From TrEMBL:
It comes from Chitinophaga arvensicola. Keywords: Signal. Residues 1-20 form the signal peptide. This is Alpha-galactosidase. It comes from the Bacteria. SUPFAM superfamilies: (Trans)glycosidases. Gene3D superfamilies: Aldolase class I (3.20.20.70). InterPro entries: Aldolase_TIM (IPR013785), GH (IPR017853).
Length: 721
C-alpha cells in the first residue's frame, strides 16, 4: 500500500536532532513538552515534577470515505530529516504542518492537506483524540466513535461554560459525557444553555494549582468548535458534516493558525498570554464608548411607551437609549412597528430632544417575513431535505422560530447590508446592538452553501457585513456584540456582559465572573459594558464592577414591579456612575485581594482596580474584603462600607485633580491628601447636597455617609485645583 505523509516544518531551534523531535517551551516554573513522533504533550511543574496536563495535539479526522464508510484516521509521526517530521495518514493524502515558537508560547501556524481524489468527507476534526489500546479501556463511555478524547487534567477552565447559575471552573468528572460549545452554537449543540456573553470564546484551559495550559484557535474555524468530554477526558471537536453537505471538490484543504498554546500559573494568566498574541491592529479605529440604557427593561414586561423610558434615561444621565426587540414589524425587517409604536418617529425625536443618542437592536441572521424582504428559499439555510432551517433563542422545537439567512447568497448579503444602511439613514443610530449569533443552526442541521462561511465563520461574516454597512454611513457608529474572543475584535467596538437575567438568581457571583472574563479584552481596543440584571436590588454589585470595566449599561425597568418609582438611592448610584465613568478602552486589571479562580474555588472579586499606563485610575473597595492594601497603588486608604473611586483625568486616583468617590453603602472612607482639597462637593441627581460630611486633618481626607444621606447622594467630587 502506498504511504502518504504530512510534513511538519519546524525551525531548527525547536529540537536539536531528527531523533529528538520534541518541542519545549518554558515559562518560570512550568515547561510544555510535545514529542512529535509519539504525539505526547505535557505540562510539568518543574519544582515538583508534577504533570498537570497531558494529551495529544496532532489532528485526527472522523471521515466518510469514498466507499461510503465512516473511518477514523489520525496523523502518526515517523522519523524524518532534521528540520521536519513526517506523519503517516493512511493513504489519504499529503500535507504539512508549520509550528512556531514565540515569546508567548506555541503556534500551529498552518495545516495543509492535499487529499487523494476523490476527497473524503470530513464529518468531524479533532485535536486531542486518539485510538486507545483495547486493553486500556475498562469502562466505555456513551460514545458512538471508536476513538476517545485523551486530554487529561484535574481541572478545566471554560469561561461561562454554563450561565444559570454561572460556572467556569470544573473538575474533570464534573462534565459527565458532554459537549460544551466554544463558539456560536451553544443552544443548538447540546450545550448547557448560554445565550450571548461570553461566547464565542474558542479556547479552554486545563491544569490545577500553579500550572495551567491554554489552548485556543488562532483563526476563526470553518467548523463548529466545542470541547468534548468523555470518560473524564477532553478534546476539541470541530463539526463539519461534509457527509451531509458535500466534501471539498479540491484536493487541497488548509487551516491557518490552527492552535495557539500558552502556559502560566493561573488559567486567567494563560488566557492573558493567548489574548496578548493578538495585538490590536493599528488600522482599528477606537470608538469612545457611551453609557447605554436599554428599553428591554420595560419592553420585556410588554410596557412599550417610549417617552417615559427616555425621561428616565435622561434622569440617570445615560447617554444612549437603545431600542430593543420588538421595535421592528417582524424579526429582521429593519422597519419600525407603527402599530405597536404609532408615534415612533415623534418618540425618537423626543428622546433626542432630551440630549440622548439613539441605538437600535438588530438580529444577525433571523428573518420572519421573507416575501417582504425579497428573500427566497435559495437565500436561506436549508436542511438535508431541502426545507428552510428555523432557529430560535433556545432551540425549543415547539417554540416560535425564524428563518435563517444563508450568506452564501448574494441576495441575502445585499439584504443584510441594505437593511442596515436604511436603518442608519432612517434613525441615525449611534449604536447597533447585534443579537442571536448563538441562535443559528449548527452543521448537523444546515450550513451555508459556500464552505467559506460555515462553522464559526457564519456569525462572524454576518457581524462583519452589518458593521461594514453601518460604518459606510457613519464611521463612528458603535457596534455592540457579546463574545469575548479576540478574533471578533476587528468587527466590534463594544462588548456587553448581556442581561444578568441569564445568571438566574446569583447575579453577584455571576457578574463577578463575567467581569473577570470580560477584562481579558482590556487591551483589545473595545469598550466593555457592564450591563445589568432586571432587579434593582442587585444593581450595586453590578455597578461596582462596572466602575472598573468602564462603560455603564442597563436593561433595568424604569419603574418597580408594582408600578412605583425606582427609589432615589438606586437612581443616584446609576446617575453617579453614568456621570463619572472612565471613557477610555485600554487598561489592565489590578486584582489586589481578588481571585481569578481555580480548582479550589470560583473567581471572587473583592477589591480590584483599573490600571491605565500603570496608573490606578479606578478602584472598587468591598466592606468584607481584607483591608490591608500595603504595597499596592491603593496603600493608605482606609474604609468601612463599599466604595468606588474614579479619576476624572489621566492621573492616578492618588494624583488626580478631580476624584469621584461613590458610596454604595453607609460608611466612612479616609484618603491620603497631603494638602487640603480646594473643594469637596456632595452631589446627586437633584444637585449639590450641603449636609454631607467631610473633613481634612493631618494629611487625611475623611468622607462619611449615613444611611439617611445615602438615599439622596450620588457621590463626592474632590477637587484640588
Amino acid at each position: 500500500m502506498k504511504k502518504c505523509f504530512f510534513t511538519i516544518l519546524l525551525s531548527q531551534w525547536l529540537y536539536t536532532s531528527a531523533a529528538a523531535q520534541t518541542i519545549h517551551h518554558t515559562s518560570g516554573d512550568l515547561r510544555f513538552d510535545w514529542e512529535l513522533p509519539s504525539d505526547k504533550a505535557s505540562l510539568t511543574v518543574l519544582s515538583t515534577g508534577a504533570v498537570n496536563w497531558r494529551g495529544s495535539l496532532l489532528p485526527s479526522f472522523w471521515i466518510k470515505n469514498v466507499q461510503g464508510q465512516l473511518q477514523y484516521v489520525k496523523a502518526r509521526a515517523v522519523p524524518g530529516d532534521a528540520g521536519s517530521v513526517h506523519l503517516v495518514l493512511d493513504s489519504l493524502g499529503t500535507g504539512k504542518m508549520v509550528i512556531e515558537q514565540t515569546s508567548w508560547g506555541i503556534r500551529v501556524r498552518e495545516l495543509t492537506l492535499s487529499w487523494r481524489l476523490p476527497a473524503p468527507a470530513i464529518v468531524e476534526m479533532y485535536i486531542g483524540a486518539s485510538m486507545p489500546p483495547a486493553t486500556a479501556v475498562n469502562v466505555k463511555p456513551v460514545w458512538d466513535r471508536p476513538f476517545l478524547p485523551d486530554w487529561q487534567s484535574l481541572g478545566y477552565c471554560l469561561p461561562g461554560a454554563k450561565a444559570g447559575t454561572v460556572q467556569s471552573y470544573f473538575r474533570m468528572w464534573d462534565f459527565g459525557q458532554s459537549d460544551i460549545a466554544l463558539g456560536n452554537f451553544g443552544p443548538s449543540m447540546s450545550s448547557p444553555y448560554g445565550a450571548a456573553f461570553p461566547r464565542p470564546v474558542l479556547f479552554t484551559a486545563m491544569g490545577e494549582g500553579k500550572g495551567w495550559i491554554s489552548i485556543g484557535a488562532g483563526d476563526i474555524p470553518d467548523g463548529a468548535m466545542s470541547l468534548s468530554m468523555r470518560a473524564a477526558r477532553g478534546c476539541f471537536r470541530y463539526l463539519y458534516r461534509e457527509d451531509l453537505w458535500g466534501a471539498s471538490p479540491t484536493a487541497t484543504r488548509s487551516w491557518n493558525d490552527l492552535l495557539r498554546i500558552t502556559i502560566d500559573t493561573t488559567a486567567y494568566a494563560a488566557f492573558g498570554k493567548y489574548y496578548g498574541s493578538f495585538p490590536v491592529s493599528p488600522e482599528k479605529k477606537t470608538i469612545t464608548p457611551v453609557s447605554v440604557w436599554n428599553t428591554w427593561g420595560m419592553w420585556r414586561k410588554r410596557k412599550y411607551p417610549i417617552p417615559p423610558i427616555a425621561d428616565f434615561t435622561s434622569q440617570v444621565q445615560s447617554e444612549m437609549m437603545v431600542l430593543d426587540d420588538p421595535w421592528e414589524t417582524s424579526q429582521g425587517s429593519g422597519q419600525p412597528d407603527l402599530q405597536r409604536f404609532p408615534d415612533f418617529f415623534a418618540d425618537v425625536a423626543y428622546a433626542r430632544s432630551k440630549g440622548l443618542g439613539i441605538g437600535v437592536w438588530e438580529t444577525l441572521g433571523w428573518i420572519k417575513d421573507t416575501a417582504a424582504a425579497g428573500i427566497t428559499r435559495n437565500d436561506l439555510v436549508l436542511d438535508i431535505h431541502g426545507e428552510p432551517c428555523l432557529g430560535n433563542w433556545n432551540f425549543d422545537p415547539t417554540g416560535e422560530a425564524w428563518y435563517c439567512l444563508d450568506i452564501s447568497s448574494p441576495r441575502a448579503r445585499a439584504f443584510v447590508q441594505e437593511r442596515t444602511r436604511k436603518t442608519m439613514q432612517l434613525l441615525q443610530p449611534g449604536l447597533i446592538k447585534l443579537d442571536f449569533g448563538y441562535g443559528l443552526p449548527n452543521p448537523n442541521m444546515g450550513v451555508p452553501v459556500n464552505p467559506l462561511y460555515r462553522g464559526e465563520r457564519y456569525s462572524y461574516e454576518l457581524v462583519r457585513l452589518i458593521s461594514e454597512a453601518a460604518k459606510s454611513v457613519n464611521p463612528d457608529v458603535v457596534i455592540l456584540y457579546y463574545g469575548i474572543s479576540p478574533l471578533w475584535v476587528p468587527v466590534m467596538d463594544m462588548v456587553s456582559l448581556d442581561d444578568q437575567g441569564d445568571l438566574w438568581y446569583d447575579t453577584r457571583q455571576g457578574h463577578q465572573e463575567w467581569s473577570i472574563w470580560a477584562s481579558l479584552l482590556s487591551q483589545q481596543g473595545v469598550g466593555l459594558s457592564g450591563s445589568s440584571s432586571y432587579d434593582w436590588l442587585t444593581d450595586d454589585e453590578v455597578l461596582m464592577n462596572t466602575v472598573i470595566l468602564g462603560t455603564p449599561g442597563a436593561v433595568l425597568p424604569s419603574e418597580l414591579d408594582n408600578g412605583k418609582p425606582v427609589p432615589a438611592q438606586f437612581q443616584n448610584r446609576r446617575w453617579a456612575v453614568n456621570k463619572w465613568y472612565r471613557r477610555t478602552v485600554l487598561w489592565e486589571p489590578l486584582w489586589l485581594n481578588s481571585y481569578t479562580g481555580g480548582v479550589d474555588g470560583p473567581p471572587q472579586l473583592r477589591c480590584w482596580g483599573r490600571l491605565e499606563h500603570k496608573q490606578l485610575t479606578a478602584l472598587t473597595l468591598h466592606e468584607n474584603a481584607d483591608k490591608n492594601l500595603k504595597g499596592s497603588p491603593a496603600e493608605g486608604i482606609r474604609w468601612t462600607g463599599n466604595w468606588s473611586l474614579i479619576s476624572q483625568d489621566d492621573n492616578a486616583i492618588t494624583a488626580t485633580h478631580t476624584l469621584a468617590v461613590i458610596p454604595f453603602s453607609a460608611g466612612t472612607i479616609t484618603l491620603p491628601y497631603a494638602q487640603k482639597p480646594l473643594k469637596v462637593t456632595a452631589q446627586g441627581m437633584n444637585g449639590v447636597i450641603s449636609n454631607a460630611g467631610w473633613s481634612w486633618k493631618n494629611g487625611l481626607l475623611t468622607l462619611n455617609v449615613t444611611p439617611a444621606q445615602l438615599a439622596q447622594l450620588g457621590g463626592f467630587l474632590v477637587t484640588t485645583k
